[in-house]
Amino acid sequence: MRNHKKPRYKTEIYEQFARIGKAISSPKRLELLDLLSQGARTVEVLAREAGLSVANTSRHLQVLRGARLVESDKKGLYVAYRLADPSVWRFLRSLQSIAGERLADVERIARRLVEGKEGMEPVGRQELFKRVRKGSVTVIDVRPPEEYRAGHIAGAISIPLRELERRISELPSDQEIVAYCRGPYCLLAIQAVETLRARGFKARRYEESIMDWRAGGLPVEVGVDSDE
User: Fold this and answer.
1) DSSP 3-state helix, strand, coil percentages of the chain (rounded to 5)?
2) Which domains does the chain have, with CATH numbers?
């Protein structure tokens, strides 16, 4: 008699694995996970950042929650979402890395973002850490304030991109400025470097995210910048 138990078991287990694949099959759901890797957000904030309606954002989040990739908490009238576990960010980062290595279009699109722009050669993680310790560089976090408060490079100053032009006089003109945002595919740091260099500053970008910085065992601070 043939034993059908093993094939059935394999089908069932791979069906469970496929739940994750189905949940991340939407570009917008991947973007929402990337945003949530910066810290917990309400549906309304996520909708604004992702350029979606609140209703559409909520539907995407329910799919991600169904696959146990995100969790939610009620805060008064609002529902805040967060990654279910740090392993979700590691999975997302691995997916980005594999796509970057295996899909030529990823490299082509990423290269197009910085092509012909000065100062876009990124600062390495260890180099930046050493320079921060020496005090030979000023680091600015150009993400929204709520992301900065959720966790930022120790010693970094919060200057959201939308405030950079207005607050540019706060930055030292005799020291290199390094801007960072949400990771290698985020435009905020690129735009910040362009703005700074146009105003005569020596500026570069750190292209990794705060999660990469934390994963490397480097110091992260939580809370509000003293200048706010």
Assistant:
1) 55, 15, 30
2) 5-90 (1.10.10.10), 115-221 (3.40.250.10)
